[in-house]
Amino acid sequence: METKAERRPLEHFTARSLAGLAAVVAAGIAFGILLALVRFQFGPLYDLDHGVATSVNAYVSEHEGLLDIIRFVTDLGGGLKVWVVILAVLALLIRRQVRLAIFVIVSGLGALALEPTIKLLVGRLRPVVDVPVAHAPGNSFPSGHSLGAFVVYGSLLLVFLPAVPKRWRTAVIAAVATLVALVGVSRIALGVHFVSDVLAGWLLGAAWLGVTYYAFRLWRREDGRREPALTEGLEPEAAKELKPAPRENAVLPHPWVESAEIVVGWVLVLGALFGFGMWASYHAGGTVLAALDDQVPRWFADHRTELLDGWSHYASKAGDTHTILAVSLVFCTLVLARWRQWRPILFLALVMVGELTLFLASAAAVDRPRPDVSHLDQNLPTSSFPSGHIAATLCLWTAIALIVMARTDRWWRWLTVAAAVVMPLVVATSRMYRGMHHPSDFLGAIILTGLWVGLLYYVLRPNAEAAAADAGDDLQHQDRGVRRFARHPA
């Protein structure tokens, strides 16, 4: 006969399953009721939606600083969440967590399919406000940002929760819930959604995420695995694999010493840039460099075509802030997923932060005019020397090549070296073609990259762990060879 102790786990699982199923059904029913009220233009709800839209718009439209914050928050529920999903799936696949990657993909694709379908069926127009501060295409009900944020950030929370220490889980859950709430509120504040649109997005997101969550639990049950509580996440057994990296006792062995070296080095690099920039900009008359600075931009300006104008625009985009940041985030995610070390991440972060600050400081100090030709880019906030686009591209791809070359012997590592050469040349050519930089600005970017990246590589030694691991492997091979020789002497 089955004892009470033997029945208890089954009872706990049944109770949790029924409670969760009831919550999913309740979210679905609530969404259906809200949909009906919107379709039939229920008076109190209609008045609430339009009253809030009008009053919020009147307040927000008068505060430009607040608008910048709201736009940033709403971006977290827009295209940015797609990149978050891509990075998460890549990391999970590299860590061989295929089941969890499938869960994230299915959850995201479901939300992506539900939003336009229901919007088309309902056909509700977006709010009309006195002072439009944002524009959004398509219909209004439900809010795609609210739905997507709930599903994407909720699914990632369920996936990565096992890697969060138990004492921090409540705070992390609260932070994700706050983020989802702020994304929804931002859509109302921008005047592109009614209150009921946002509520509908949350309810539909909760229902869909609940369905995928319980489907995953059934998958585990079929494999004979235990059913974890919601606060344990989807795969508690994968906690070790889901952690970004183990704790490193000495990312910087002597942090105060390294910090001082970096600060002193930054000042010296700035001095070198300032000295070269002032000479090239104002005192290099009669030299070959001065002739190149005058003739190269003119030659490019004389050979412009409509086709090359378009090409140079996209080539320049390879060195702008958004592209550099996106590539940096993708690379850092891959490094953590593959090699599980923080030091190369710190190296890349300091390279890019240092590049930005050195570029801004030297550009302000030198204050060099742009080439004396027509400019295809207008209203740039900085001066000509050095080129920020070229310097950022050089620093990024050089740092990537230095990290990858020391950590793998696969053939594709040479692609990073090729990128470190080709990408800066492409960006430099496009910037000079568009009349934005002199050849000496390109040379200034090379000086910045060589001095700054070299300094950080010497101080931080981003591949120290990889070198130590290789040395350990060599010692093991030598030790095996000695033992083999001892057993079978010549």
Task: Give the SSE map.
Elements: H1 4-39, H2 43-60, H3 64-76, H4 79-94, H5 98-122, H6 144-160, H7 166-189, H8 195-222, H9 239-242, H10 255-283, H11 288-302, H12 306-317, H13 321-339, H14 343-366, H15 388-405, H16 413-433, H17 439-460, H18 464-487
Helix content: over 70%
Number of β-strand runs: 0
The assigned structural class equals mainly alpha
Strand and helix order: HHHHHHHHHHHHHHHHHH
Overall mean pLDDT: 84
> How many discrete structural domains?
2
Distance between the termini: 70 Å
Total helical segments: 18
Sheet of most strands:
none
Shape field: globular
Report low-confidence residues grouped into runs of 5 or more.
1-17, 471-479
Oligomer: single chain
Q: What gyration radius follows from the Cα positions, in whole Å? A: 28 Å
Beta-strand content bin: under 5%
Give an overview in words.
This protein has 490 residues and is an all-alpha fold. It has helices spanning 4-39, 43-60, 64-76, 79-94, 98-122, 144-160, 166-189, 195-222, 239-242, 255-283, 288-302, 306-317, 321-339, 343-366, 388-405, 413-433, 439-460, 464-487. The protein has 2 domains: 12-242, no CATH class; 255-474, Vanadium-containing Chloroperoxidase, domain 1, CATH 1.20.144. It has 18 helices and no strands. The chain crosses the membrane at residues 21-42, 69-93, 100-122, 142-164, 171-192, 198-216, 262-282, 321-339, 346-366, 386-404, 411-430, 442-460. Keywords: Membrane, Transmembrane, Transmembrane helix. This is Phosphatidic acid phosphatase type 2/haloperoxidase domain-containing protein.
